[in-house]
Amino acid sequence: MNTQGTVTTLRSVQPSETRRRIILFPLPFQGHINPMLQLANILHTHGCFHITIIHAEFNSPNCSNYPHFTFKSIKDRFSEIADQFVTNNDVTYYLKYLNRSCVDPFKECLIELLAEPNKGHVSCLITDATFYFTQAVSDDLNLPRMVLRTSSLGCTLAYGALPYYSKTSYFHLTKDDSDYEGLVPEYPLLKFKDIGKITTNPQGMGEFVNNMLNTMKASSGIIWNTFKELEEPELQTITRDFEIPSFTLGPFHKYFPASSSSLIQQDRTILSWLDTKPPKSTIYISFGSSTHITESEFQILANGLANIGLPFLWVIRPGMVHGSEWIESLPEKFLENTGDKGRIVKWAPQHEVLAHPATGCFWTHSGWNSTLESICEGVPMICSPYFADQPINARYVSHVWKIGVYLENGFEWVEIEMAIKRIMMDTEGEEMHERIRCLKEKLNISLDEGGSSHQSLMKLVDYISLF
Ligand code: UDX
């Protein structure tokens, strides 16, 4: 590794070398676009490949940040349903829609790219694992397909174990059911109350998971944004069950000093504001790119933060609070009362905020990118998961790695305040800091020459070069 803690180049391009091409296809959401573009950069820089990105019109990436890539846009028709986001939280509905609406435009685009003269041999296609329709397309065109799975190994195993069709009642338990706090026999790390959060539509989720896992198994290999030392038992199980190569070369964002794939403009002024705060004093709150919160949750959070007495940096995306444009439903005099103690921004430079010495705790929705980024910077977490993989990540954070507190009962300020105190003020928090510091150290070693992620990247480059 170099002095910035990023990985040094594996080999440089020789002028005489014919570069091979790879075509990548991200799912059009921030938490999926970031790792796919990071992977593209890694393969371009460390593997000397030409990169072409096929992308949906919806959430189109900012191509000018990547002059070294070729971009091709396809019509996905997602904008026809995008406004349902705020009210319909059945994630599988959107994923299935995209898996239908993209088939023809994607195939046409791929055929055109493969027919381009003098552009070099296309080695393979790398698609987001959730784009399961692409396996049939690549089979038809005789093009090897690899997948990028943007969630954890643990999430993929848990997804595969849950009985979506036979035990749908598992997903609909309420606080009044005696099993609500019980462990799920098929994946005993999870409680029944967790899997109720994963999906509101077990049948739809089951269909989606089957399609995704079957086409992952039919692919030529899986690329994971994780590192071996974090999920060793899970990696062993995946390697045994999937029978295709798995490459764990994460965390991807550590290969480069800064990320430039944000869909919303980052407010960088808050970095100098953080400079004025004491070490480990500030709570950073962000619930990722697609969660929405109710007005009552927003009020609980705001009142609590105003009273807790610690500095805070809070990300609220426009439209994130149900029924509000932005922060107009803040309690009266909130900004006046909190003064310089708090900042609210629409979007933060998250990697830099987490790396800042003033950041003492990350209150997160437990998206996989956010979880990994927090581990990279040694910041313990408070977990408020909303859907899909998030409750699974939260369990791993609180019960496996023991580097955070899971707010299992939602937005109850007494519980939130206790969690903040446990992390920021108690010896338990010091122990969490120590455990996450050890993980951070293992992570840095994995990226060093000879480390597990570094080796996995070299194997991946060699593997793709053989196609
Ligand atoms: C969702 C899922 O929850 C996640 O697990 C899955 O792998 C992808 O889709 P999302 O809600 O976008 O993801 O959360 P997360 O995975 O944490 O990704 C958010 C990304 O946005 C992170 O890379 C984070 O650094 C970035 N971000 C977030 C910012 O740059 N600024 C912000 O203010 C907030």
Walk me through what this model shows:
The protein has two domains: 20-259 and 447-465, 3-Layer(aba) Sandwich (Rossmann fold), CATH 3.40.50; 270-443, 3-Layer(aba) Sandwich (Rossmann fold). 41% of the residues lie in helices and 13% in strands. The protein has 17 helices and 13 strands. The strands form two sheets. Strands 3-2-1-4-5-6-7 form a seven-stranded parallel sheet, sandwiched between helices. A six-stranded parallel sheet has the order 10-9-8-11-12-13, with helices on both faces. β1, α1 and β2 (50-56) form a beta-alpha-beta unit. α15 crosses α16 (427-447). The two termini are 29 Å apart. Bound molecules: uridine-5'-diphosphate-xylopyranose. Residues 29-32, 34, 150-151, 262, 286, 288-290, 315, 347-348, 350, 367-370, 373, 388-390 line the site of uridine-5'-diphosphate-xylopyranose. Uridine-5'-diphosphate-xylopyranose binds at residues 29-32, 34, 150-151, 262, 286, 288-290, 315, 347-348, 350, 367-370, 373, 388-390.
Identify the notable features of this structure and list them briefly.
alpha/beta; Rossmann fold; 2 domains; six-stranded parallel β-sheet; binds uridine-5'-diphosphate-xylopyranose
